[in-house]
Design goal:
This protein is mainly alpha-helical. The two termini are 15 Å apart.
Length: 170
């Protein structure tokens, strides 16, 4: 079976589509909250819980407008790929009752969570919190190469996972 056909077959099932949407939205929310964590913490000192929730929702809603279009595209693409990986891991788990996550998949998800955006405009997720934002900004393409590398790793991981599922070895 063709890999894209298999992916379509998996994603058209409601529980797997739910896993995909959960992975995608979770990744986006994680990045939106991490970028605005300083603002949220500062606001929380003087606001009620309800006001804090409304403020956080406003920041999440406006998150996409704070990024350059190319970096928003890489963030969304990384989120889609992480959603697909989450779906394939769940599918594989339900087929075998134990999932084997390759090292490449782990690296792609980990680096994707740490370095989702661009270094110059949004501080690149957890990397900024860990104090690495300026180090990525010093790279030749201001950290964009890391995002593109993550996308490449995730695409390879998805390809390998679909190949294993196609062979029935997963």
């Amino acid at each position: 079976m063709n890999k894209l056909t298999l992916l379509y077959k998996i994603l058209k099932q409601p529980k797997y589509m739910g896993a995909f949407l959960l992975g995608l939205s979770g990744f986006y929310l994680f990045n939106a909250l991490m970028l605005n964590m300083g603002n949220i913490l500062s606001f929380s000192k003087q606001a009620s819980f309800r006001a804090l929730i409304l403020y956080s929702l406003t920041l999440i809603k406006g998150f996409s407008t704070t990024m350059l279009p190319a970096m928003l595209l890489t963030l969304i693409l990384t989120g889609i790929l992480i959603g697909i990986i989450c779906t394939l891991l769940l599918y594989n788990y339900q087929l075998t009752t134990k999932t084997k996550i390759s090292g490449l998949t782990k690296i792609g998800i980990f680096v994707g969570a740490i370095v989702p955006g661009c270094a110059t405009c949004c501080g690149i997720g957890l990397a900024a919190i860990l104090g690495m934002g300026s180090a990525f900004a010093a790279l030749p393409f201001q950290g964009k190469e890391v995002s593109y590398g993550v996308i490449g790793i995730l695409v390879i991981s998805i390809h390998r996972t679909l190949t294993q599922l196609n062979k029935g070895c997963a």
